[in-house]
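Changelog excerpt

This revision adds worked examples to the README so contributors can see how folded entries look when concatenated. The first example is reproduced verbatim below.
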Amino acid sequence: MCRYIQILIISSIMIMVSCQDEENLIISNEKNLIINEINYNSSEVFDTKDWIEIYNKSDTIIYLRGYYFTDENPDHIYLFPENSFIGANDYIILAQDTTVFSTLFPNVVNLYGPFSFGLSGKGEEINLYDKFDNLIDRVEYKDSYPWPTEPDGNGPTLELINPDFANEIANAWGFSIENGTPGIINSVYSDSLLYIIRKLSKNSY
């Protein structure tokens, strides 16, 4: 009985919060390939150059032949090699400088790159397309509130709190411990309903 009442209270709070600010609602993310972590401005003492992490939330391997990554400049394109793939419920890293990245993160094995352009330190739109030019995922991150500002040259990365959250929304992101968690579950990961409520209540666009 008590648990039933608790669930009703939590549900009521979520409805109230969403009614107050619908844009803050972290809706379900139905995509299988997710831009899950972004390092756009490394610290001077741990400079990996730019990189992103992509997560496959499906239960099947996804082959990446013909897939490509871009930023806001249409001339900036990284085309995944012919034999590229991402395992079921697994991660890959796309690094601007694979040599530097591997030096600082030697245990990361699912590594792709390099790419010849950098990610903007001021924020920009980044995109993943399939071989048919279908948009698979897009994030337009920023280095200012309501996005976490700690990743802007201070060491942490942008981390998606949960792959089921809509990653185009600032409230769905946090900042990592230390210098990021490439290739493993994000340090800010949470599926707590109360965490979501606090996040929705705290931030606004």
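The second example, added in the same revision:
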Amino acid sequence: MDSLLIEFLPAAVEEFSSSYPAVQYTIASAMPSEVPERVASGDCDIGICYLGKLPGALNVVAKAPFPPGVVMAASHPLSCKARISFDDCRDQPFIQISRISPIHTLVQAEFSRFWGDLVSAISCNSTTLAKRMIIAGRGISFFSRIGFMAEIASGEVVWRPLDNRTVNAIEVGIVIAAQRELSHVTKPFLERLTRRLKQLELAAAI
């Protein structure tokens, strides 16, 4: 989930570094579908991803309802709608950061077909660039609102849920390996991540 690299993780690292200044971090971005296996295999100590059917070797430490939805400039015509249908999106300029849907393993084939039918106005692999283009009104995109909390609060963009019950049931979770002991430094960092996720969940509910 690249959107976590913009605000969520940098803020967590900055906060944790004030108490543990000597800690070294390795932070990697991956498709949400790849995260569980990377944690289960030992490549990563902690993973954050959309939750679906997980390997039995993983534990979910915390989760929050942050499904992907439609992000757009506040001035966009679709911003007046409470929910956005697939058909609403088909003729809109689309800002794409991945050819593969980030939730392709979690939802029915209908969403994958819809994703494949979208024609990109802008295609890039940078969430930061995509965010700037969305704010500038160059198109709509699909993100969890967890990556746009500040922009939503400021009124620069709006986030709307899709008119799809399965998509809206998707949660973001923090996962760790069930049988692997975390280091004495990783444990408090995990606690910071968990607390921050819950803080954002409360903020999003306001």
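Reviewer comment on example two: The mean pLDDT is 89. The two ends are 24 Å apart (CA to CA).
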